[in-house]
């Protein structure tokens, strides 16, 4: 009888243990998020490849530019910079058109002192610019920088790019939003997880390159490559040596931030906040 009771208790315990499941990662996804992104949010990514770089050419860059957004368009760089009177900065936010070979600023408009400028994107002959904590975005005419309108959004504004359909926006978290450029409605979101399945936070300046989202990670000297459909991490580009050299060369130089892709010539440019150089690089395995 005792043997029977012992076997019964062991059997019940085994069945009870089999029903336990590991906790899923909790992520806030809008109702319009696709199922593949939800699946990605529930599972860690496998290990991802790490890339290095080769410097192709070096160009001058305005060492006073606190770079927040960078775009290459029709042979010129367009740059959004940060800084605000409210924070007590001695430099203010701007939008500029730059002759990248010389670093010369050809065109510039300053934001009102209370705004801290963030990422920029060019879409349909308009320039879109985010602000950090003011929940306000600006739309300019590409040719004369005339302000066309303002728009609002929830949360913070960090990086901005586009996929020829939607604006793609980061907000300092692991969530990336796809935003309608006319109505500014969030159409869908993806969540980006690291190799251990943890949220990859502080995604910053963005660029859309060959069907991938490339993102600076704030305070990390790397660019991550992201699948825009699922949020899956596709690779990391280690730029530690380059970033360290720049920050060691100047007390003013800050973190890596700025990715611009010349699609016509397949050229990749990077820089950082208050760096005195712009680098054309090639990514290598």
Which helices and strands, and how do they pair?
Blueprint: H1 2-18, H2 35-42, E1 50-60, E2 67-73, E3 76-81, E4 94-99, E5 104-110, E6 117-123, E7 126-131, E8 136-141, E9 147-152, E10 160-162, E11 167-170, E12 175-179, E13 186-191, E14 203-209, E15 212-217, E16 222-226, E17 233-238, H3 240-249, E18 256-262, E19 267-272, E20 277-284
Parallel strand pairs: 1-17
Antiparallel strand pairs: 1-20, 2-3, 3-4, 4-5, 6-7, 7-8, 8-9, 10-11, 11-12, 12-13, 14-15, 15-16, 16-17, 18-19, 19-20
Please supply descriptive tags for the structure shown above.
mainly beta, Neuraminidase, 20 strands, four-stranded antiparallel beta sheet, 12% helix, disordered N terminus, 44% strand, 285 residues
Descriptive report:
The chain contains 3 helices and 20 strands. It is mainly beta and 285 residues long. Residues 1-42 have low confidence and may be disordered. It has one domain (40-284): Neuraminidase, CATH 2.120.10.30. It has an 8-stranded mixed sheet with strand order 14-15-16-17-1-20-19-18. Strands 2-3-4-5 form a 4-stranded antiparallel sheet, with no helix packed on it.
How far from one another are the termini?
A: 67 Å
| Largest sheet geometry | 8 strands, mixed
Q: What is the element string, with H for helices and E for strands?
A: HHEEEEEEEEEEEEEEEEEHEEE
Q: Using the 3D structure, state the CATH architecture.
A: 6 Propeller
CATH class: Mainly Beta
Q: What name is given to the CATH topology?
A: Neuraminidase
Average pLDDT reading:
87
Strand residue percentage: 35-45%
Secondary structure category:
mainly beta
Number of strands: 20
Flag low-confidence runs: 1-42
